[in-house]
Write a structure and sequence with these properties.
Chain A: GO terms for molecular function: cytochrome-c oxidase activity; heme binding; metal ion binding; oxidoreductase activity. The structure holds 2 protein chains of 2 kinds. By secondary structure, chain A is mainly α. Chain A contains 25 helices and 4 strands. Helices cover 67% and strands 2% of the residues of chain A. Classes of the chains: A mainly alpha, B mainly alpha. The structure holds protoporphyrin IX containing FE.
Chain lengths: 818, 105
Amino acid sequence: MTQALRLHRAFERIWGTPRGWRGTLSTVNHSTLGVRLMVTAFAFFLIGGVLAMLIRAQLATPGSAFAGPDIYNQLFTMHGSIMMFLFAIPMFEGFAIYMLPKMLGARDLAFPRMTAYGWWCYLFGGSLLLIAMVLGVAPDAGWFMYTPLSSKPYSPGINSDFWLLGITFVEISAIVTAVDIVVSILKLRAPGMSLDRMPLFAWYMLVTAMMMLIGFPPLILGSILLELERAFGWPFFDAERGGDSLLWQHLFWLFGHPEVYIIFLPAAGVVSTILPVMARTRILGYGWIVGAILALGFLSFGLWVHHMFTVGIPHMALAFFSAASTLVAIPTGVQIFAWLGTLWAGRPQMKLPMLYLVGFFVTFVMGGLTGVMVAVVPFDWQAHDTAFVTAHLHYVLFGGFVFPMLAATYYWLGHVTGRQYSYTLGKAAFWLIFIGFHLTFFLMHIVGLLGQPRRIDTYPADIGWTGYNLLSSVGGFVTAIGFGLFVIDLLLQFFHAPRTRRNPWGAGTLEWAMMLPPPSYNIASLPQVDDREPLEAAPDLALSLARGEGYLAEPRNNWRETLAVETASGRIDHIVVLPGNTLLPLWTALVTGAFFVLMLLGLYAWAPVPLIGVAALGWRWAWVQGGKQPFGKLPIGFGDEACVHAEVQGSPGWWGNVFFLSANGTFFGSLLFGYAFLWTIAPNWPPPELLTPSVPILAIGVAGAAVAALFGRRVRALKGPVAGLAALFVALIATVWLLAPSPTSHAYGAVLAVLLGYGALHVALAILIGMFVVRRRGAGYVAATLGAEPRIARLWIDYALATGATALIGAHMPALLA
Amino acid sequence: MTPLLRSVSGLILWAVAFSAIYAIQGLSCALGWDAIGLGGPSLARSILIATYIVSVTILAWLCWRLRPSSGTRDFLAILAFASSVIGLLSTIYTGLPVFWLSICS
Ligand code: HEM
């Protein structure tokens, strides 16, 4: 044991979080941050739950005077927004942040400082919404914020701005976390863990995080456009001036429908992880499930118009989306059959997590059935915007997300606390939640079919809805009592339960191959993996890893080391040296927050200041990484050796930039879609006045882009390309400033301003990154000479010149042709 | 990374085909192509059907390209084949409306 203890002390010194405030604020440890995210998300769940109780209190009786329509609108908008953006997404993110490195046999995520930044952004953004609620100016236009309801003329107050800015702030956190998760799954795994040996949960999270990178940018774009309209009068959604409120609906549902699957997939991943353990067997059909979730990831994007059935879209377009809607049922079905088959093949035990999984099954399947009903167009015309839809969406979200997460809580609680589950309160909580939930929402199907619309604050006594609503409200309160018990149970568990033994459920995945609760560095050495369930073959893996009988067992240079593997095969690729605790994420989040607060307060002239601050902090963030001394190949154990990430081309940083830019590319693509959509579909087009085309400016820009594209590519020289980008920048700015019509007069000018502004911003960023790498190279940093930094700069330059040139040409062409 | 990309190429192609068909449908209505006759079907419908056939052909070719050698146990190769088959069937199914439904009303 002395060897294990010696290693523990040595690793704890490197990876631990110092005591006191400074440690709390500066930690970048994934276990700490994962738990923080989950606790914060649960707090938001409780707040959203209280709002739900207020809603049910209001609807319990006809003609209730408890809340007027104004307050009622705020209640359901905040309930929906909190549950979707501040509870569900951060909850599974926190869970993934905590769990993924442990399941994959790594010591942390790929970008620990980003993990911390993500949490702070979420906390601050969520707090903005809470402040709005306390001040009584909470958003009130519904969780999907349809324009024109959310536009200035109908929502003159600050309410909608709180939503647009607060949610966008939280989405920043979602994007950086998604990049963090994708790169960690693809690169930071234990040696030998090829993709087909990866735990299923990692596949689910890989698909989920990729979907977030594709799905969230349209929403962020929509929010930015709507905020620009509200703040500066740029008419993207105002039909009078060439805008179209359908554009908002497209952008929102491009995000919104995949969002449902983004929430469901991690929960399904939890089910696929817990269920085989409860059934004392392995999951059936691993390959089928991977295929199904990949298919689900793609097909779910083909559904967005499904939410717009009733807005007068041609039959053929509706039929495409109807077809896609029926199609996604197949991969979901494949998963359900895999689960049933696993239960069938195994010897299931009705332990507490299993009970919650049964709750999930029953509820989710019913939600699926009502989903098929609303996917049928004629039925949807009937049920659209009634309580039936509210009931359906809660069966799916509560059944598909809350029940699995409750199962996860009871399954992994001992992992977090290091204590053994020893109360029976969890069972009582289950029955209260289950019965309460079904009472509440089953009745809402019926009263919906009787015609009760959603989002009404009151209803007359004489149309026969009273009894259903009263019972439904009673059900709501029963659910709430169930959650009360659940909270008490958790507290008891934290403070009273005896210590747990290792691997209490006899599971096979790597997160159980460590001390409980897990130490800051997870594992004192990394295992060699040659099976999907490494613990099955080696039940004592935890001990041997703790004794240092694996990779990277000797701490060196005070480095936080973990291994990166080649994506598909899981062969060792290089050593990743992760950054230590720092206050940079907190500062960056605070300065980011300053931007959003200034926008909210309408101090637009000041808003660029924090943006410059973010750029400066970003510079520092990247600068403090790495050193000037090359190390060459270093020993990693078992006679193997590898370079550190600063000296390789395919470092996690490179991949992080690739995935960030793919999300960014989706943003740009959505913007082009918006431009094309307005031009072809919106009323009041063509615009009264087009841009004044200028061939010289166009030529300067295109020539600059060509120089940037062609020069220095082979030798990774950056100065030539940067000079080319500078010309492109000038052309873009000149086009907005001198040639384009005013952005306030017509949506055309507004779209051009955003398009050209986007191009100019990215060109400027690429110039900055290019200069950064030139400076680093001059200063002799290894990552900028031998490593990936020049390659990353090149990537940004290529992205910027492509988008910048597209924006420039896209702005000029129609005017030149006219 | 390339094997992973290959293993979703069929699905990516489905996404491209689906977006293309939807975009062409929207564009044709905006530009009035459904009113331009080409003897039989309108210009809009002809373009839609052509796009459909091209997409299905490409995906069928992809399935053929990615067919796993018999007895292979390479997970990603099987996955690549499976996703191209899913992509093909999905394209055939989601694109079917181009043949008969009214395009612009
Ligand atoms: C205790 C459990 C819950 C109860 C009693 C409850 C109750 C309600 C009710 C009555 C409405 C309809 C308001 C109206 O249309 O007038 C509603 C709306 C909504 N709820 Fe829940 N809810 C619960 C949990 C959840 C959860 C866990 C989620 C998501 C993860 C969620 C997401 C939503 C959304 C998105 C809306 C639509 C808001 C809108 O129309 O803008 N709810 N909820």
